[in-house]
Amino acid sequence: MIVKKMPILQGFPNFETVKFFTGKFFRKYNFSPVFYDIETTGLSRKSTFLYLIGAVGIEDETWYFHQWMAESDKEEETILRIFSQFLQQCDLLISYNGERFDQPYLEARYEKYGLPSPFEHKMSLDLYLALKPLKTLLKLPALKQPCLEEFLGIKDRIYNNGKECIQLYKDFLKKRDAIMAEEILGHNLEDVLGLGRIFEMLSYLCIYDSEYEVTYAELDDENLILELTLPYKLPQKFSNGNEQFYLTGEKETIKFIIKTTDGKLKQYYANPKDYYYLPEEDTVIPKALGSGIDKKHRKAATKDTCYTWFTCSHIFLSDPLKQKQYLEHALPYLLNTLK
Predict the structure, then answer these.
(1) What is the pTM of this model?
(2) Strands (DSSP E) found in the chain
(3) I need a labelling partner for 47 at 20 to 30 A (CA). Which of 85, 135, 261, 295 fits?
(4) From CA 246, how far away is CA 334, in angstroms rounded?
């Protein structure tokens, strides 16, 4: 078995950053996280086997990168035992697509050897699932981890992709070539360190979670312009929009521009099933108040018709609280209209 361990001195988020963002998900701040990624000889949990695990854990306020690589299929159980012991120090596992592949695969292999699962009572943060809403917002061509890294301007991957590594590992088993081994380990290293690099993309979710303060408002002709200040810095600038609105983000600032209709805006609501839409008045009314309206004049509201209108008055433009209340409802709807 090949075993490696080394400190990570740069290119990985500091522990306080990891603590901050994961604390938002789990409301827990005293934890020990582990970033991990596995390499297997295929997708099937029964007919293939695990040959490599890479993981990053914290020791004495320093991140350390660990790798355990099997030099034959007979070493799979040993790697599983070592990893299980390694995970005793942590209570949060951070992965990319780990909840759909890595963890279920490992649990099946632990079961094969009659070993207890090391994942019980541990939290999981799957960055693939967490960052999935950003695909459209950031115009990502795909949600593969290298695509996210490329969005961040990271283009220094040099090793084979996962599928090519499977054949490379099979060749390694036959030839025992040290250069092949280093290439296999290098691919896994890039994947695990990449988890740290894309981790700070969680900051973009503040747009969906209303984690911002409105610091500027202006009605320019028929456009409402709002500037939002974020509690943390975005790792890369972005812009997106459609015929209804336009959004740009850079550093700690997001600029939001939306067209009005005669100085009026739609205030959207989150639960269409609770409202009737009145086509003649182009507005909704709560079902509790609209039950007496003739059925010819009302319809079940949909997410696209669940709104009322309000005027961008001086009172609205001078009140950041009202502006944020508007955005809390409008932004989730508008972001879902992006293509």
Answers:
(1) 0.90
(2) 2-8, 33-40, 50-59, 62-69, 92-95, 123-126, 213-220, 223-229, 238-241, 245-250, 253-259, 264-268, 275-278, 283-286, 299-300, 307-311
(3) 85
(4) 10
pLDDT, one tens digit per residue, over 64-91 is 999 999 999 999 999 999 999 999 989 8
75 vs 1: CA distance, rounded Å? 7
Give the closest residue to 172 by CA, choosing from 39, 76, 71: 71
242 half-sphere exposure, CB direction, 13 A CA radius: 12
Strands 245-250 and 238-241: antiparallel
Q: Which residues contact 232 (CB under 8 A, 6 or more apart)?
A: 20, 203, 206, 252
- Find where tokens 């005793």 sit: 88
Q: Which tens digits make up the pLDDT trace of 224-246?
A: 999 999 998 999 999 999 999 99
80: enclosing H helix or E strand:
helix 76-86
Quick check: 187 and 175 in contact, CB under 8 A? no
